[in-house]
Each structure stands twice: as structure tokens, then as C-alpha cells.
Specification:
This protein is mainly α. It contains 18 helices and six strands. It has helices at 40-44, 80-86, 89-98, 104-115, 124-128, 137-147, 161-187, 200-209, 220-232, 240-249, 255-266, 274-288, 294-302, 323-338, 345-358, 361-365, 373-383, 390-411, and strands at residues 8-12, 21-26, 34-35, 64-67, 72-75, 78-79. Strand 2 (21-26) and strand 3 form a beta hairpin. The longest helix has 27 residues, at 161-187. The chain is globular and about 80 Å long. The structure holds s-citryldethia Coenzyme A (SDX). S-citryldethia Coenzyme A binds at residues 236, 239, 270-272, 274, 301, 309-316, 366, 368, 371-373.
């Protein structure tokens, strides 16, 4: 949204004779102020420099606020702890998309609209056949979500609010179906069609684990757990994949292509791929000897010459405990309890590793705490979700956040196509020599 009149100014002075420059300063509702540098290049011929965007606000937003020092996460002002325990995922989707929690009538209408869009075009199954059965589910998902662009010509125009809303409903509704299809394809089982009498999370569990050979009754505790996992992953301010979606959509491409770009970015182990990497890390420590080998592993992590990281730990914004990690650990307890897996060795190993890390100065001094990915793999594995599918589940849940952020950008009258500049440190002008002289 257009910013209000400036709340103050910042004055830049230069040592190279460039005249000093006053730049507007804006205050948010909460959180750090921003210095508006949009006029900087035009007035000074200079760029700012911030690879990785550690000190750069790419936009103003009303959707999600993170206080990294307090370990606080708010969706539209509501604490994640309250949403995760008092709401379900589709209520949270409504909140992220429209700014307010739905009343009973609004919720029923929204749930009805999503439910009616859960099937995918029958042609989608033929895309899967092009993949090897052992393809990584995120390769499949990147392809399938992008392929949706070919099926919905009536909801491709990002600049039409109604088409944006229709594509949002379609994407939220179809992601569980596509993730379940990606899973069924890898295990050679037939796809299960969605059932309209089931809840969003219940439908996902049935499409994942049911077969045509017998009735399937979703376990309510597991359904609640997966619904909570969706809520915890729904949005997270301007993270890498959300920034990817915003930048991609800023060219005016269609919503399905922009969300496919988000899926591709989320795949990386530094981002959404961390839950898969974290569980594989725990497996490796388990195989090497379990709790007795934690000290050796931590030494590797601290060794600057090794590239070993404690996956599921650390965060660009959280310099305190990620509130989602706390909720995920509680969900772990509930699910393992329900399944009689109190003594799950991986969960016990994860808790021992967390305790040791949080008492080690290497992590304490760098303010490295568990993030959302540290426990999510353990609870998903207990639910029966295979490790390679963890990030696809993350993408399913994050789709609504990507869409809400995309919508906010497109609705901002000030938005322009994103086009960063650079500090050029390469060769000056030079002429091509004939190959005989090179
Ligand atoms: C997600 O942005 C989001 O909001 C993302 C996310 C979302 O919901 O969208 O929250 C989801 O992606 C969570 C993060 C999942 N990634 C991981 O768990 C992978 C492991 N974590 C790291 O790779 C790292 O912590 C990042 C990428 C998450 C953050 O990295 P930063 O902010 O760029 O910090 P950094 O790499 O500069 O680290 C600072 C120091 C370095 O040590 P020194 O150079 O100062 O000696 O901390 C060290 C790093 O080596 N460090 C770690 C570490 N994370 C940082 N050392 C060991 N293990 C780690 N996990």
C-alpha cells in the first residue's frame, strides 16, 4: 500500500563530494523503521549494496509479522500459538487471504468453494508418467504446479481481482491432491480421488494413505496434527520463496507459474528442504551410534573446515526460539503418544541434540535455535509421510502465504516489476581478438 507521509528523515553524507541527501523515514505499526532509498540513484548516481537482503525491506505488508528477538509470529496480528490451537488451516487461509478470520457463514462458504475445486484435470495424471518412479517429489511438484497454467485460461490474469481469487481457490484446493498424486506415483499405487465429505486435512490423509481395496478412516489425532503443520507453515513474511513469488509475479506472469517458482525455491536445503535434510541428519547420527555420537557431530558442525550444519537450527530472522518449533515439538508429543511411539529413538535423539546444542556456546553465541524444520520431519515421519515428501507438504501449506503476498503486491498501486541493480567488478570495455591471437 502507498506509504503515509514520512515519519522523519535520514541524512546521507558522502566523503566524495556528493551533496548530502535527506531521505524519508517511515515507521511501521511494529518492527524496524525503513529508510526510503527509491530516490537515491536518481539523485546521487549511487546504489545501495545488500546481497542476501539482510538490511532491506522489499515491500510494506500487512500480512505476517515476525519479532526475531522475542520469537513471535503473527498472521494478520494473531499469534501463531492461538491460530494453531483455536483455528484450522482453512480458517487460517481465509485470514491470510482476506485479512480477517471468517465467521461461521463465511467459513462454510470458503470451505465449500475449496472443496469443490479439489479434483485436478484428468490430463494431469499423464504428466506424472513422464517422471521416473523414483523422481524427487519436489521435481514432480515443480512440474505439476507449473502445468496448472495450461488448464485454467479463465484465471490466468493476475491483474483481475476475481481471476486472482479463483486461481487462489484452485491452488489451495489442488495442492493436497497433487502432493498425494506425487506420492502415490512413487509407490506405484493408484491415485485416490478427493472426497467432499472430508475435511481439508482429512482429505489429504485419505488421498495419501487409502487404497481402493478397503475403506479408510482418518485418525483424528493425526488429521489434527497435519492440519496444525499446515497452519505453522502457511506464511512467514518475505522469506526466500515468498520473495521469489513476488519477483516472479511482478513480471505479470500467471499465478500458477509464480507459485511454481516458489515451489522451486522452497526445495533448497537452506529453506524448505531443511526438514528433509534434518531428518536425514538424525538418521545419520542414529546410524553412527545415536546419542553417544552427538558430541562428535557437534564438533563437525563447529569445525570451520567442514560444511556440516545442524539442520533445523538457525534462522535469518529468529534470534530466539522459533515459536513454530515449540508448537511442532508439542505436536510431536501428541502424535507419538497417540501412536504409542513414546520411545521413538529419533525423537529422543532430536531432543538430546537440541538440549546439547542449546547449552553449547557456539550456538548460543550465534543465537542459533531450533526452527520450524527441526521437529516437523519427526512428526511427519510418525504420521507416515515419507522423508522426500516433507518439503512438498511444506509447499502445500505455504501456497496460501505465497498467494496472499502476491495479491498484496499486485493490489499495491505503487508496485513495479522487480529489477535489482549491481556493483560491477568485472572487465572494462575490451575488443575481441581473432582466435589465432587469443
Ligand atoms: C526456513 O526465511 C524464512 O522465514 C524461512 C522459513 C519460512 O518459514 O519460510 O522460516 C523456513 O527456511 C527455516 C530455515 C531452515 N534452514 C535450516 O534449518 C538450514 C540450517 N540453517 C542455516 O543454513 C542458516 O541458519 C539459515 C540459512 C537458516 C540462516 O542463515 P543466515 O541468516 O544467512 O546466517 P549465516 O549462515 O550467516 O550464519 C551465521 C553464523 C555462521 O557462523 P560464522 O560464520 O558466524 O562463524 O551461524 C552459523 C554460520 O556458519 N550457522 C550455523 C547454522 N546456521 C547458521 N552453524 C551450524 N548449523 C546451522 N544450522
Amino acid at each position: 500500500m502507498a506509504l503515509n507521509p514520512a515519519d522523519g528523515k535520514a541524512t546521507l553524507t558522502f566523503s566524495d563530494g556528493t551533496p548530502s541527501l535527506d531521505l524519508p523515514l517511515y515507521k511501521g505499526t511494529i518492527g524496524p523503521d525503513v529508510i526510503d532509498i527509491r530516490a537515491l540513484y536518481g539523485k546521487t548516481g549511487k546504489f545501495t549494496y545488500d546481497p542476501g537482503f539482510l538490511s532491506t525491506a522489499s515491500c510494506n505488508s500487512t500480512i505476517t509479522y515476525i519479532d526475531g528477538d522475542k520469537g513471535e509470529l503473527l498472521y494478520r496480528g494473531y499469534p501463531i500459538e492461538q491460530l494453531a490451537t483455536k483455528c484450522d488451516y482453512l480458517e487460517t487461509c481465509y485470514l491470510l487471504l482476506f485479512g480477517e478470520l471468517p465467521n461461521a457463514e463465511q467459513k462454510a462458504d470458503f470451505v465449500g468453494r475449496v472443496t469443490k475445486h479439489t479434483m485436478v484435470n484428468e490430463q494431469m495424471q499423464f504428466f506424472l508418467r513422464g517422471f521416473r518412479r523414483d523422481a524427487h517429489p519436489m521435481a514432480v511438484m515443480t512440474g505439476l504446479v507449473g502445468a496448472l497454467s495450461a488448464f485454467y485460461p479463465d484465471s490466468m490474469n493476475l491483474n483481475d481481482p476475481w481471476q486472482r481469487e479463483v486461481s487462489a481457490i484452485r491452488l489451495i484446493a489442488k495442492m493436497p491432491t497433487l502432493v498425494a498424486m506425487a506420492y502415490k506415483y512413487t509407490i506405484g499405487q493408484p491415485y485416490m480421488y478427493p472426497r467432499n465429505e472430508l475435511s481439508y486435512a482429512g482429505n489429504f490423509m485419505r488421498m495419501m494413505f487409502a487404497t481402493p481395496c478397503e475403506d479408510y478412516k482418518p485418525n483424528d489425532v493425526l488429521v489434527r496434527a497435519i492440519d496444525r503443520i499446515f497452519i505453522l507453515h502457511a506464511d512467514h513474511e518475505q522469506n526466500a520463496s515468498t520473495s521469489t513469488v513476488r519477483l516472479c509475479a511482478s513480471s505479470g506472469t500467471n499465478p500458477f507459474a509464480a507459485i511454481a517458482a516458489g515451489v522451486a525455491c522452497l526445495w533448497g536445503p537452506a529453506h524448505g528442504g531443511a526438514n528433509e535434510a534434518c531428518l536425514n541428519m538424525l538418521y545419520d547420527i542414529q546410524k553412527a551410534g545415536g546419542v553417544a555420537k552427538i558430541g562428535e557431530f557437534i564438533s563437525q558442525v563447529k569445525d570451520k573446515n567442514s560444511t556440516v550444519k545442524l539442520m533445523g537450527f538457525g534462522h535469518r530472522v529468529y534470534k530466539n526460539y522459533d515459536p513454530r518449533a515449540k508448537l511442532m515439538r508439542e505436536t510431536c508429543h501428541e502424535v507419538l503418544g497417540e501412536l504409542g511411539l513414546h520411545d521413538d529413538p529419533l525423537f529422543k535423539l532430536a531432543m538430546s541434540l537440541e538440549k546439547i546444542a542449546l547449552e553449547d556456546d557456539y550456538f548460543v553465541s550465534r543465537k542459533l535455535y531450533p526452527n520450524v524444520d527441526y521437529y516437523s520431519g519427526i512428526v511427519q515421519k510418525a504420521i507416515g509421510i515419507p522423508v522426500p515428501l516433507f518439503t512438498a507438504v511444506f509447499a502445500l501449506a505455504r501456497t496460501v502465504g505465497w498467494i496472499a503476498q502476491l495479491n498484496e503486491m499486485i493490489a499495491d498501486p505503487e508496485y513495479k516489476i522487480g529489477r535489482p541493480r549491481q556493483l560491477f567488478v568485472g572487465s572494462r570495455h575490451r575488443d575481441v581478438k581473432p582466435i589465432a591471437q587469443r
